[in-house]
Amino acid sequence: MKFLEEPLVAFDLEASSPEEAIRKTGKLLVGNQLVEDEYVEAMVRSYQKNGPYFVVAPNIALPHARPEDGVKEAAVAFVRLKRPISFGHSSNDPVRFVFALAAASSGEHLQVLQKLMQLLGNRENIARLANVSDYKGIDQLLGGDAS
């Protein structure tokens, strides 16, 4: 599983719509050969069809699609938006942090969600996500040492 590794993290990207935010985050997965282009479009279609169900907490969106839509390897990519945008969620908008999830099976999906919940279950970590300036800050949040 590729979980928030350096090539899967981008800071302060511009997005003018939820679809653009999803595509920019998904592009990190595609660029690292973890999903097919179709997977990103499936995430966008899921949002368009089902609404912002994946906006799970204030500021946080976890877009994803089905494994058969083109997952090659389980992964999570992260984009911090330069300006928060509304996804249409009644209580958790606007979104600033987009974590695109890719899992090839339900077991992997649960593993990915568990790792994310460990990170995002701590309010201090969420505050630090807003302020880190480079990948080293993310690595430290994950308990690594990118020095």
Automatic annotation (TrEMBL):
GO terms of biological process kind? phosphoenolpyruvate-dependent sugar phosphotransferase system
- Entry's Gene Ontology cellular component terms: cytoplasm
- Is Kinase set as a keyword in this record? yes
Q: Which InterPro entries match?
A: Ascorbate-PTS_EIIA_comp (IPR051351), PTrfase/Anion_transptr (IPR016152), PTS_EIIA_type-2_dom (IPR002178)
Q: Name one Pfam family in it.
A: PTS_EIIA_2
* Cellular localisation: Cytoplasm
Q: Where is the PTS EIIA type-2 domain?
A: 2-145
Any idea what this protein is called? BH0221 protein
Keyword annotations from UniProtKB, A to Z: Cytoplasm, Kinase, Phosphotransferase system, Transferase, Transport
The regions listed as transmembrane in this protein's record are none
Chief subcellular site? Answer: cytoplasm
Family annotation (PROSITE patterns): PTS_EIIA_TYPE_2
Q: GO MF terms on file?
A: kinase activity
Q: Does the keyword Ribonucleoprotein apply?
A: no
